[in-house]
Design brief:
With about 375 residues, the protein is mostly helical. The protein has a domain of about 260 residues. It is built from 13 helices and 2 strands; from the N terminus they run αββαααααααααααα.
């Protein structure tokens, strides 16, 4: 089925309502979740060298994010379902490839938060979940820009905003698994400063929304605008000084959501590698943070899975920025990345190659710069 504007069951106004509803619901849910966390003693205490807060902070914020996104997304499908009952297939699609896996990893994060599991059980669980999601996405032909199709994206093969995977299904599956697991860990790594992860995910989700909406990818548009609204609603509580943290539960939940949304995003521009560059650019700041932390740990003979004060936020604070200014700097960088991604999408023929070249040079320069800054206090 080729989607056109008349066939879309969610109007522009309804998309706006979805975002506002997710913002309001998540913001409202965060208050009782925070109170519950305090009552249960679910507090992130400054008892480790890598902790930067001075007072205990509740960490069940991921529960509010998960509830907000899940409730509003399913409500959107029910309300927006068309007369042919197509919402039944959409519900199954959402449940199998997005929300159920996100809730599973969120539950693992919720279990992990008070216990601090070793990294390997978490990585194995993420890989298993990512593998199942990848197989379903590739099998259903809902990967946004697949490999193995000769580098061309045929808009006539659009199925609910995605293209058929064609040949190279194993390569598509492998890349999807690596992307899902990598982004889950990257968002989790990036959640090291008040508001950093929630702000970056919100900006990336908005970037996905604008492209998906223009491409008439209804499910990806709805999921991304709901995610943006929910994370901004949570950000009202999570910005510095944070009143609550999302914890591993929230970071892993959002990792699945944003990784699947970007995997299913179909910019539809040629050559294919330009389409593939857009999701990477949208998540470029968390990826930069992960690369800086991992590379610096490896050069110091440490495990890349070891925590530490070697992330972008820590380096910015050591350079003299306050914690709020460090967060604003990271949000601004994420915003610039989103603008680059949108520029590549809307001006692919005339400026796409130039913008990707400028962005790549800037990202590599930032990587080299941060790797030269002190990794410890």
């Amino acid at each position: 089925m080729v989607l056109d504007q008349s066939a879309m069951s969610i109007s522009t106004t309804q998309f706006v309502i979805l975002g506002v509803a997710a913002f309001a619901l998540t913001g409202l849910l965060t208050w009782p979740v925070r109170a519950l966390a305090i009552r249960l003693g679910a507090m992130d205490k400054p008892n480790l060298a890598r902790k930067t807060q001075t007072e205990p902070v509740p960490y069940l914020g991921g529960v509010a994010i998960a509830l907000g996104i899940t409730i509003i997304t399913f409500a959107a499908v029910f309300v927006g379902g068309n007369a042919n009952g197509e919402n039944n297939g959409q519900l199954k699609d959402l449940a199998v490839t997005v929300l159920l896996p996100a809730l599973l990893l969120g539950a693992m994060g919720l279990f992990d938060d008070p216990r601090s599991l070793s990294p390997w059980p978490r990585l194995i669980t993420q890989t298993v979940v990512g593998t199942v999601v990848a197989f379903v996405i590739v099998e259903n032909g809902t990967i946004g820009t697949p490999f193995g199709n000769g580098g061309a994206v045929d808009s006539r093969s659009l199925v609910n905003g995605a293209v058929e995977s064609g040949n190279g299904s194993w390569l598509n599956t492998l890349v999807t698994i690596v992307w899902i697991v990598g982004i889950c860990n990257s968002i989790n790594f990036f959640d090291n400063l008040d508001g950093a992860a929630s702000g970056a995910v919100a900006i990336a989700a908005l970037g996905v929304f604008f492209i998906a909406f223009d491409r008439e990818q209804e499910l990806v548009s709805a999921l991304s605008i709901v995610t943006a609204g929910a994370t901004i609603g949570f950000l009202m509580w999570n910005k510095s000084p944070a009143k609550i943290y999302m914890g591993d539960a929230g970071a892993l939940f959002l990792g699945i959501i944003i990784s699947v949304a970007t995997i299913r995003l179909n910019p539809g521009i040629t050559p294919t590698w330009q389409s593939l560059a857009i999701p990477v650019i949208l998540i470029a700041v968390p990826l930069l943070d992960t690369c800086v932390a991992v590379f610096s740990r490896l050069t110091r003979g440490l495990s890349p899975l070891t925590g530490g004060k070697d992330h972008l936020s820590h380096r910015l604070v050591r350079a003299g920025l306050t914690r709020p200014l460090a967060a604003i700097s990271l949000w601004s960088a994420s915003g610039v990345c989103a603008l680059f991604a949108l520029g590549i999408y809307f001006y692919a023929d005339s400026l796409g190659l130039i913008l990707i070249g400028i962005f790549t040079a800037g990202w590599l320069t930032a990587l080299a710069h941060f790797l030269r800054t002190p990794s410890q206090d």
